[in-house]
Amino acid sequence: MSDGDAAEEIMCATYRALCSHGYADLTMRDIADESSKSKAALHYHYDSKHDLLCSFLDYLYERFVERTADLGAEDPLEELLALIDVVLQKSEDEPEAFETALLEIRAQAPYEPGFRERLSRFETHLVESFVAVLTTGREDGTFVAEGEPEDTARFLVTVLTGAATERVTVGHSVECTRQMLRSYVRRTLLAEPEALEA
């Protein structure tokens, strides 16, 4: 088995173990039990559970970047709505147990610089993706040119993060957020009122 294959197996095992045990109770033994690797083999690749989880967050980041790279949109409005949808769809697709484990990891970020750094990468990537499409839309006249694209992008990311958290903590569907953000985009960001019906 190549190093790449071994790393992929460990990442998949980590995912399954987080779904089964959550973050707080997770051990290297739990992860080993979900793979063909021994606990000693895991420690050969990773010094600790913390190091492994940092690598796992890197793995999730790479998958997220791939997922948001090419949305197949034909114009800035379609791309903006597709980006919102892909973030919300990610929340809907993941098992609740896994989303709960990620929320536990997020809660540790103020105390764990490794977690904080990696979670910041997710946010930065998403903000930059929104800024790019908003800027393109301003340049071609799709979106209004008032305010800073980064401010709008950070607002969207804050709402999306809140929707994912609400889904895990109190069981709220993300569908309301989807509809409200679509309405916000069409009523507030579009430059031409007639496009509201499009």
What is the 3D form?
elongated
Largest sheet: none
N-C termini distance: 52 Å
Proportion of β residues? under 5%
Structural class based on helices, strands and sheet pairing: mainly alpha
N-to-C SSE series?
HHHHHHHHH
Rg, please? 19 Å
The percent of residues in helical segments reads over 70%
Q: How many DSSP E strands? A: 0
Provide a count of the helices. Answer: 9
Mean pLDDT across all amino acids: 91
Are there runs of 5+ residues with pLDDT below 50, and where?
194-198
Task: Record the SSE blueprint.
Elements: H1 3-21, H2 28-33, H3 39-45, H4 49-69, H5 76-93, H6 96-108, H7 113-139, H8 149-170, H9 175-189
Outline the structure in words:
With 198 residues, the chain is an all-alpha fold. Helix content is 75%, strand content 0%. It is elongated, with a radius of gyration of 19 Å. The termini are far apart.
Compact overview of the structure:
The protein is mainly α and 198 residues long. The protein has helices spanning 3-21, 28-33, 39-45, 49-69, 76-93, 96-108, 113-139, 149-170, 175-189.
From the structure above, extract its key features.
disordered C terminus, 9 helices, 198 residues
